[in-house]
Amino acid sequence: MIETTAGREFPLREAHSLVRDLMTPNPWIYWADFIFHISLGWTAFLAVLSMPLFSAWQFPLFIIATLAFYRAAIFIHELAHLKTGTFGLFRLVWNVTCGIPLLIPSFTYDGVHNDHHKRDVYGTAKDGEYVPFATLRPVIMVGYVLLSFILPLFFIIRFLVLTPLSYFIPPLRKLVWERASSLTIDMNYKREENAIRSDRHWKLQEFAAFVFITAVVACIALGVLTYYFLVFWYVIAMFIFFINSLRTLSAHAYRNPGDQPMEFHEQYLDSINVPGNLFITALWAPVGLRYHATHHLFMSLPYHNLGEAQRRLVNGLSDNTLYLKTVRTSMWDALRRIWGEASANTHGHQADVANSDTTFEDGVRRQRNA
Description:
The protein has helices at residues 12-19, 27-50, 58-81, 88-99, 112-116, 138-146, 151-168, 170-179, 202-221, 228-249, 264-269, 281-284, 292-297, 306-316, 321-324, 331-346, 360-369; strands at residues 2-3, 9-10. The chain has 370 residues and is mostly helical. It has 2 domains: 2-22 and 251-369, no CATH class; 27-240, no CATH class. A two-stranded antiparallel ribbon has the order 1-2. A hairpin with a 5-residue loop joins β1 (2-3) and β2 (9-10). α2 (27-50) packs antiparallel against α3 (58-81), α3 runs antiparallel to α4 (88-99) and α7 (151-168) packs across α9. The longest helix is centred in the first third of the chain and has 24 residues, at 27-50. The protein is globular and about 65 Å long.
């Protein structure tokens, strides 16, 4: 049992007993899900390219391509968690058909995301996936979302220009690794030299991304490809980053100022579940990410079992009060709460957000001082 900030105890052992049979990933589900969506994404993308500009079917196919590529891309999160040495062929196929063409090879998330789950890293300055948005001015969140519109350009420059230059300039090589090789939300994040878990051959992924974007630019210059290929690629990548930025803001409460680590139960209560429904919520939080708090509770749970775990924990815990504290009804609900807290904290007042856990930080202080 884990003592919580509200004086109750979170029944961790009881929760684990309810989900311990759900920890094994099913390769068939991974393959079927990914192959279907990456195939759908490329098919819709090529169909968009083949149609006259602004034709009737172009817009809906563009939406389909974006959402399909988005779901396929989010498998990078699963790759970061799968046991080292497993799903090797899946990792290769994902990189060849999705990660490299989108200029987000799996090494950009490997190791970096695993640090996010470490008890002594989560929510601190060392956590590249955490910014204390709830304690900062709301405009910081706006800036983070707007950054999505230039991120594809950043990745083009990173692999098209900086990669070959870094081969010949050692100091640049070190800088590119530390500052331009990680999918994070903290712009001050500095990647450690050994921040690799499974992608030991990351240099091949990097070179392949360089070859891909170089080939695309060369084909456009030679007239083999129309420049619309790069334009549509950019817009799709831009919207993928945009949707994911809103999802990221909906994934945590972001209340920890980062001056000290958070206990395990604090990390859980700082994370968010948005169960929603399979047809809407799963579009913006695909591959199990709508159960983000449950994922932080049991990070080894494969994405396809998180929904079942959620149902068991809600219905099976002897006291599910604390477990339900992480639940939000929608993305709007999650964003409204964090915006409200940031606004209130900016003006020096306690946040007044309906149903939010506003006693969280006070409880943390009491427990630490106890």
